[in-house]
Each structure stands twice: as structure tokens, then as C-alpha cells.
Design a protein that fits this description.
- The complex is a heterodimer of chains A (259) and B (343).
- With 259 residues, chain A is of the alpha/beta class.
- Chain A contains nine helices and ten strands.
- The radius of gyration of chain A is 18 Å and the shape is globular.
- Chain A starts with 6 loop residues before the first strand and ends in a 10-residue tail after the last helix.
- By secondary structure, chain B is an all-alpha fold.
- Chain B starts with a helix and ends with a helix.
- Chain B folds into two domains: 112 residues, no CATH class; 206 residues, MetI-like fold, CATH 1.10.3720.10.
- Chains A and B meet through helix 2 and helix 4 of A and helix 12 and helix 13 of B.
Amino acid sequence: MTENTETILSIKDLEKTYPNGVRALKKVSFEVKKGEFLVIIGLSGSGKSTLLRCLNRLHDPTGGEVLFEGKDIAKVQGEEIRNVRKHMAMIFQHFNLIPRHSVISNVLMGRLGYVSTIKALFGKFSDKDRSEAKRYLDLVGIGAKAHIRADQLSGGQQQRVAIARALTQEPKILLADEPVASLDPATCHTVMDYLQKVNRELGITIICNLHFLSLVRQYATRVIALKDGEIVYEGSPKEIDNAWFEKIYGAGAKEVHVN
Amino acid sequence: MTTKYVFKRTIFDSISFAYIVSILLVAILTPSEDSMLAMDRNFAIFGALLVAGIGVSLALGRMGAVTLGHTIFAPAHKKNHEDTRNTFLRLTTWHLLLTLALTIVVGVNQTKFSIYELTDPDGFAGAVRLFKGLSNPNFAIFPMAVVKIIETFFIAFMATLLAIPVAFVVSFFCAKNIMRSPGAFAIYASLRTLLNITRSVESLIWAIIFSVWVGIGPFAGMLALWLHSVASLTKHFSEITEAVNEGPIEGIRATGAGFLQTIWYAIVPQVVLPFVAFTIDRWDINVRMATVIGLVGGGGIGTMLIKYQGQALWPEVGCIIVVIAVVVWLMDTASAHLREALK
């Protein structure tokens, strides 16, 4: 991997206060370099999911700036939000596929940001879109299951379909919100390996929320730790020792390993 | 939260108090029909009783007594220091028993309930005559009944079919999880209110209105059932839409999909089967309603029914009832099987 210092995303004093008064993010600032595999760790409720959703504007930040390739996207509206999401794909803990649709149809939905509404309503995707969808399905190793209904697949396979859907968006950044939290340990590594492949071979920047430190050490190029909506650690995964661990997860916490 | 429960409790106790006292007043004073109809004064009395009831409820609450309203509306954590005495020593028990007893007395009075009329030999003989007629159907009118039941069937079919597209589109505007912004919420609230009013007027009454508008006949009946179906299907459809899994919606929005694309790809696949099931159910209900909508000028077999019933031609009525029963039973069975298959 070549050393790249170009900044793709720059977050400045990002704030999110929910209507019920909960302050989920408190002046969060950090930078993301192109080609990074950035992992965000922290307890449930520390603001990790909120942070990712403020980046692709599934949530509206209540303050601060998000500079995506130099342009502030924290307050853009309408068509511009769709544009942001097109270039910042996302995968989720519960995969969020459409269960009744086929695998290939789910992957094609990654093109919804590019096709007109009328074409999308009639399912008219171009041949190029279809061949791309197939190519990305092959990339995550489930090209053979293209015509099976998505809800017939195992959890790990569904997450790989979700990765393929994200890739057909031809994104610059891939946001992953706890991508392996509802998978068993073995499947967990398969999915993380595919994310690493996407990062290394396609050069897509990845920002990933994770729970397990062992996975963090194995896959992350850099780590940010959130606690109560604030950044408490930023640096290399190798530098997280027991003292840091207790600071992030609270005294008395024990590390569990995923093998 | 706490104040909300006290408010509900007080309102309940107050209505209950005014209800009991006004029944007792009527029983004791036995007012004439004229004074029963003096609405201004009676409303004033009832209003005063409601106010008195609020006072009674608050006073009992302050004394630490557990009222019926408290038992019903108090949240679980407030019920800790509840009345632990024997059931028959509690205020709540006596309140409930008194209300029930008074309501039964008023009910018997209002429905002119009479064992004497029920066992009157002349009346009973009349009923037996009628049943004999009904159980010897005159199948001479069978061909006409078949023609009319076909008309009935298609009244129900068209009403359901034409209600589907309207209900489908409108239901998304009536779903809270789609109409999130304040402006959208105003549309949501006004549509819901309009549909609730439409639904609270029975289709028989809509048929009366439409029979004046478009003339007596099947078209009026179809329109009446259509309107009621739109309101009812929209309610069911929007409730299904409100219960969909949010995950796929988030998944599709995250691809950069627009509003319509999100509805079409993330919501429609989740709701289409329950929509079909409810539509089949509505069709079944419509067939049943279409058999009686003729009683008020809505066409179909009901028109025949009211004609022969008016002339007391019971064997003819019997034939019509047989035809209706068979068709309704068939529809009921078919719809049950179809809905089962869709699960």
C-alpha cells in the first residue's frame, strides 16, 4: 500500500443533539486520509453510529463542518444530500437488504442514486449497470447466488451482498456500521477480509465501527475511540495497551478475542 | 406522565359520577317526556354534575381513596400502595357493581325488553307462518335472483377494484413514518381526519346520498361501497406501512435514492402481501354489504329482497335468502383460503 497523505474527509467540531436533548456528539474533529482503513471504537451509546450517519446525512448534524473533498456537506439539502450518499456508501449491522428481492436486484439498488426515478420505478437498469453488479458480486465471492432471494442467504452472505450493493455505487468512501456485530466469529473474519480487499484493491477509503479490539488490531490502519460523544484516543491500533483499553471501555473491562 | 394519568382518572371518575347521579335523578323524579326533551336545562344539570364529579374525584384522591378511575389509569408504579382490603370492602368494587346494575336497569327500560311480547301466542304464530314460508322457497323467481346476485357480485367487485389504486396512493400520505416533516404532518393529520369521518358513516348511509346524486340503482351502491372501501383500506394499508422494518429504508436511502425510489424499493416489497390480504378481506365484506345495499336504493339483490318483503311474500324472500347465503358462504370460504395461501 502506498503512503497517501491526501485528505478526503475533514470533520470539524461536529455536534449532534437529538430532539430529546441527548448530546450524542460533542465537538468531534478528525481527518480521514484517502485510502485509510479507519476504525472507530467505543461502547454502545458512545456516538459511533450517530457519527457515521452524520457523515452521509442519514442524520442531520446540529453543528460543525464535514468537508468532503473540500466541500462542506454538513448542511446541504435535497439533491445534494443524494449526491453525498452516492459517493459515500454504507453497510449496516443488520445488512438492510430487501428480503423479498433477488441478490442481483439488491445489488442493482446501489445504482438508484444514478438512474432517473421513472427508470428506477420500472426496474430499468442499463446492461452496464447489470454487468457491474455481477462483477462486484463475483468480487465478494457470491456470483453464483445472484438469482436467489436475499432472505435465503446466511448472515455473512447477506453482508457480502450489502458490500456488493455499496460497491456498485462506485463510492469514494465506504461507511461500515458494526458490519460484523450480528455474525458468528468465523464469518466475521470473512466479511472483514472482503472489506480489506475493497480497501486495498479498489482503494476505497473505509470508516468502520467495531466492537472487538482484536479485529481492530488486525484490520485498522488507524483508530479513533469515542466515549460519551468525545474523541478520547486517536492513533495506531498497535498503541492501544491495557491502560487505554480501560480508559475507553471503563475500569474492570476485559478484552475478549475473536478467533 | 403523572399529570396525564391524574387528568384521565379525574375525567373518568367525573363522567362516571355524573352518569350514576343522573340515572338516579331520573329514577327518583320520573320526569315527563317534555322535561326529558328540555335539552338546555338537562345539559346544564349534566354539566354541573360533571364539575361536581371532578370535585368528588379530587377529594377522594386527596383522602387517599382508590377510585375506579385510579385503578384503571394509574401507571404500574403508582399501584404499589393499592387497596389491599377484601374485594367487597373496596370502593372500586362497589362503584363497578353499582354502575353495572344501573346500566342493566336502563338497558331493559330503553330496549322495552318484554318477556310478555316474546311469549305472546299470536305473535309467535305469525313468526311460525313466516318461517314456514321461508323454508318453502319459491324457486320460480330463482332465475331473476341469479341475475340480481350477479349484479351484486359486480357491485362489490368494482367497488373493491376501484378502491385499490386510490387507497394505495393515499395510504402512504397517511403513514406517520413517511410523513415526517411538519408540513407533511399537516397533510397526514387532515387526511386521517377526513378518512375517519368517511369511515364512521356507514355505507348504507352513503348509498342514500349517492342514490340521490346518481339515481337509484347499482351505480349508487357501487359508489357507496367504493367510498367506504377507500377509507377502510387506506387505514389498514397505512397501519401496515407504519409497521415496516426501518432497516431496508435506511439501506435504500443510503444509496442516494430519492423519496419515491425509497418507497418503491424499501417499503412496497414489505407491504404488498398484507395489502393483498386486506383487499381480499374487503372484497368479501363488500359482497356481504352489496346484498343489503339494495334496501336503500343501491341496486343488487337487496332491491328484490325489499320488494318481496314489503308484500310479505315469504316463499320468494326464502328463495332470495338461499341465493344470498350460498354466495356469501362461497366468498367467505374462497377469501379465507386465498388469505391463508398468502401468509
